[in-house]
Write a structure and sequence with these properties.
Blueprint lengths: L9 H11 L4 E2 H7 L4 H13 L4 E2 L10 E3 L8 H12 L3 E8 L2 E8 L2 E7 L4 H7 L4
Antiparallel strand pairs: 1-3, 2-3, 4-5, 5-6
Helix pairs in contact: 2-3, 2-4
């Protein structure tokens, strides 16, 4: 295995804490939530993986993104990470979020309108509809 250079940055630590809260992440989501662009997100995630802070799924095809996680059971929560990603893509700012006991709570805003959402795997379609997300 290659010798891994570098140290963890503050953004890397925030990303690891995100995954430790049982939410898996892909490089696209990491680029949107933590890093300035996808290239940096991919590079940093590879480093974090090689330093054994996170595990990652195997890819079936080359263009498929890796999904990074801390525990294999957390992969079932990936749709909640996609929800946060979609919220950011639609122009919402995420003030805060917390994931505990299979419930994602977040405070978001867009154009002076604030929303508090509570999402579980069961009510995801209703959350998407309420926020007019696709």
């Amino acid at each position: 295995m290659k010798q891994v250079k570098g140290q963890l940055t503050k953004r890397d630590m925030n990303l690891i804490e995100y995954c430790l809260s049982h939410l898996p992440i892909s490089s696209d989501i990491a680029a949107t939530l933590f890093y300035p662009n996808k290239y940096i997100a991919q590079r940093r995630l590879t480093t974090i993986h090689r330093l054994n802070y996170l595990k990652r799924t195997e890819r079936l095809i080359v263009n498929q993104p890796y999904v990074y996680y801390t525990d294999k059971n957390d992969l079932k929560n990936y749709p909640l990470s996609i929800l946060l990603y979609d919220i950011r893509l639609c122009g919402f700012e995420i003030e805060s979020y917390q994931f505990k006991d299979d419930l994602l709570t977040a405070t978001i805003h867009k154009n002076e309108e604030f929303y508090k959402i509570s999402a579980t795997l069961e009510n995801l379609p209703q959350v998407y509809k309420r926020l007019s997300l696709q």
